[in-house]
Amino acid sequence: MNPMEQGVGPVIPEAVCQVPARVARDGPDGGLRAVLRVLYTCCRLALLVACVAVVLVLSPLLLLLGACARWLPLPVRGVTRLALLYGTYLLTCEVSAVVNDVGFHVSRRRTPLDPSEHRARCTTLVRRSTGLFFGPGLRAIGVRVHWPEPPLLDPERPVVILLRHAGLLNMQLGIHLATDVLRRRPYGVCKSAAACLPGAAALLRLTSVIPLRWNAEGRARAAREFASMGPRLGRDAAVILPEGTNFSTRRRWARIAYLRRSGRHDLAIAAEAMPHVMPPLARGAGALLATAPDAQVLVVGHTGLEDVLPWRLGPGYSSHDEAALHVSWRSFAPEEVPRDPEGFEAWLYERWRELDAWVLATRRGRTAKPGRTDRVDWDDPPPR
């Protein structure tokens, strides 16, 4: 996200109030907009405080239900794990992000930083906040996280992360991969709903991920951002979710029906054979890669987060009782990824076919062996 000049007065911390200084100087209309923005931010802070208070009050009951989740009926089990997961996220990543954001901007006013120091400091704070959730936070509620070894990538070339979209907190997972595993600043776009709480908004402010309203204007701006993002990456990472929306059986079949109406019967047939993933959309990632010819690609799969929303998983989706998050990736050198639209779309569908096979094998407790094995960094699920 592009840096903004912050601050509207001594009462509201600079990091909390997202009002450009120039707006406050534009006269009565600018002043009214500034006041409304402050009220909106205060409401979001109040919502966060209320959510944290509810989680703290209910935490003994949630922990007890979480310990017994395996023996609960499937709908109750999903709701219990959803409450545990999101409550842990609020207590770790959300609170940490707000505290880090406020502290960072206060210290920056006292000691100005040059651009490189500013970027490095932001990346470190983001890594701390997301790492608190994906590390100690998930372990505290009994969720085991299985990470593969870091991929072998050229540190001087940019990386485009193509991330599967299923379950909750997918963008936070992509940001964590970029900052903690790859040690790079994340770029990208996301829906504005992802920044509804102040901690998530603070997290995005410390990165170059832009929240957008997902209407026609927002989608058009997202396309422009992807088309112009390549030259800005440098050695950083772009996080893209090619499926465009969270997985559900209804959405998957709607996407397949759209492909058939559009005359893309070959893609519809391919999508029908992938019951664990949404048919990917190649336009955004393809536009970015066309302007970043030296970018490496990291295809990232995960499974486990979707189990907190079991009502979205259809009868063809493999069941999974283990409280675990499995993450895997496969890296590709620039010359291995087609840059022409048709070639990239076919390549992307093949990668998603491999992801579908990996999800199925992982949820059944087997080792996935998709595609070529000489460059595969897939994580092997633990034996049961």
Automatic annotation (TrEMBL):
This is Phospholipid/glycerol acyltransferase domain-containing protein. It comes from Streptomyces hundungensis.
